[in-house]
Amino acid sequence: MTLSTSFERVDLALADPFRISRGTTATTANVVVRISDGEHAGIGGAAPSARYGESVDSAEAALPDLLAAVGDVGDPHAIARIERRLREASPGGADHGEAAARAAVSIAVHDLVATRLDLPLYRYFGLDPTEAPRSSYTVGIDDPGRMAERARAAFDDGFGILKVKVDEERPRERVAAVREAVPEATLRVDANEAWTPDEAVRIVEDLADHGIEFVEQPLPADDPAGLARVSERASIPVAADESCLRASGVPAVAEWADVVVVKLAKCGGLREAVRTFHVARAHGLEVMIGCMVESNASLAAACHLAPMAEYADLDGSLLLADDPFDGVPVRGGAIDLGAVDRSGSGARRR
Question: What DSSP string runs through 16-72?
Fold first, then answer.
């Protein structure tokens, strides 16, 4: 079978500047891949992250070889072989090379295959669409009053679960302002590696009386001993994001984490995401399916895996000023897989 492939860079403006502990973002760049068999086409995308040594430029440099590997295999249904070839063709190898670019290709292949079979992607994986958890909505770092306003607006739009970004400056004040604005909401806190062990122990305990569901990545990923110390002393569950990129990283974080965050762009594709789910389960951990700030070209596929997770953080496209792709509706946090009116992931250009 002859497959045609292409890719493009898509620059996307955010609705509002989005600040986390590593900096503020006003625009994001995604790569979007298209794979066609002449009759059907699959779309995939990803948002490369500088945190993992990747960029849109590096993804674009890797994609010709990655897509050539797909073409060499020829049969899009041979997904295990394709993903093995993607790992072999990736710069630096499977554990170091262009995971976001590989994820974009993996998503496009899965979208094509499910479309050829006339199945929505969740059904291709044998999942129950009614089991998808509600997604959180993220409140970026800002003046506490502004964060409270954004939290209230999101809650009034139906988002009963909010993720509150914090850093080392005034975390209790910011979380307290949000909690006062939305006393009924479920709150999660994400530090994105911002704290030291001593700060984390103190801050987590300071936040305990605000009813936090869990705190995500309180320390840098290269401090497992500190993370273990925080986990031992914290009364709030701890989630591992930057500390766990793929299935092979689960055993190490299982010593201190309660939740593993799975993201397609950091693990390299749908099959590796599913493997990470299973390894996390084997270690007694819960899982949150997460995302970058990204378009529905990639986010839609993550939504289809949501029924495998206890938690979801799939608001990436909702933070954009305008998404050129449609996908799975996420209204008020409800991931409405049943509303997808086409096979595959449901992603398509508007």
Answer: EEEEETTEEEEEEEEEEEEEE-SS-EEEEEE---GGGT--HHHHHHHHHHHHHHHHH
Residue 97 confidence (pLDDT) above 90 = no
Q: Clarify whether 266 is annotated catalytic.
A: no
Torsion of CA 143, 140, 213, 272, to 10 degrees: -160
104, 31 contact by CB (below 8 A): yes
Is 312 in contact with 132 (CB distance < 8 Å)?
A: yes
- Whether residue 92 is predicted with pLDDT greater than 90 in this model: the reply is no
The CB density around residue 161, as the number of other CB atoms within 10 Å, is 21
Query: What span, in angstroms and rounded, lies between the C-alpha atoms of 303 and 132?
Result: 8
Strand runs labelled E in the chain = 4-20, 23-36, 41-46, 137-139, 161-165, 186-190, 212-216, 238-240, 259-262, 286-289, 311-312, 325-326, 330-331, 334-335, 348-349
**Residue from 188, 263, 266, 271 carrying the catalytic annotation:** 263
Which of 165, 174, 179, 246 is flagged as catalytic? 165
- pTM exceeds cut of 0.85: yes
Q: Taking Cα atoms as reference points, which of 121, 138, 155, 77 lies closest to residue 307?
A: 121
**How far is 347 from 323, CA to CA, in rounded Å?**
11
Backbone angles phi, psi at 28, to 5 degrees: -135, 145
Is 165 one of the annotated active-site residues of the chain?
Answer: yes
Residues 48 and 303: their CA atoms lie apart, in Å, by 19
For residue 197, the surrounding DSSP H or E stretch is: helix 197-207
Using alpha carbons, select from 261, 307, 315, 3 the residue that is nearest to residue 136: 315
Q: 238-282 pLDDT, tens per residue?
A: 999 999 999 999 999 999 999 999 999 999 999 999 999 999 999
**29 dihedral zone (left: phi>0; alpha: psi -120 to 50; beta):** beta
Q: What is the pLDDT of residue 96?
A: 60
d(CA 338, CA 340): 6
Structure tokens at 287: 């899982």
Q: Say how far residue 10 (Cα) sits from the centre of its chain.
A: 18
Per-residue pLDDT band at 299 (split at 50, 70, 90): very high
Measured in degrees and rounded to the nearest 5, phi and psi for residue 36 equal -130, 145
